[in-house]
Amino acid sequence: MRFQLGDIEIIYLHLFHFSLVGNAKEWLKSHPNQSLSSLKDVEEKKLQRFFPLSHYIKEKYDISMFQQGFDEAFCETWERFKVMLIK
Hints:
Blueprint: H1 5-16, H2 22-29, H3 39-50, H4 53-64, H5 74-86
């Protein structure tokens, strides 16, 4: 069975709510039916709600200004940096 690109997007939209929990699921329920008509709509609105541009800019700045502490071992610095990247 072969699916067209539009069919796959419809399937993803119908299954998307199963991937959410907590606040994200409540956020999705707060949208009127049919207001999120494409995956691009979902992506844009989800990013605006949960990852605002100000947060992104701050995190990017923190990563670019990252420094090792004066008495901090390299392995501790590396672990702290990896946590920052994941966040």
